[in-house]
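Could you show me some protein's one-letter sequence and the numbers that encode its backbone in two labelled lines?

___
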Amino acid sequence: MASVSRYLRIFCGCHCRADRSFFFKGRQFPVCARCTGVLAGYVLGIVWAVLFGRWHILICLAACLPALIDGIGQQRKKWESTNLRRLFTGIPMGMATVSVFINLHFFYLWQARKILNLLS
């Protein structure tokens, strides 16, 4: 389990601060609350894409705004965010990330078809 936690921290680029993390039965989550939300958003984003399709890129950008505003406001000492706020602003950001990757996939397929049509 320790190796999974280590790679998860590297994958997320997480600071893993105890004061910004959730605890379960006295043990700290391997990543902070916002990264926990982003990871949950990845899962929810995949489920959403399978059931309903991908988001438009403008919706993806809008979904990232709450986490960006909260993170920047906290960094500039305008306010101190809570772990629940970090979690709930991270979820849409994770969902948007999945949708951006799906959109990129379809864009590259479209470009490849255009190139193949030119070559044939």
DSSP finds four helices and two strands in the chain. The chain has one domain: 2-119.
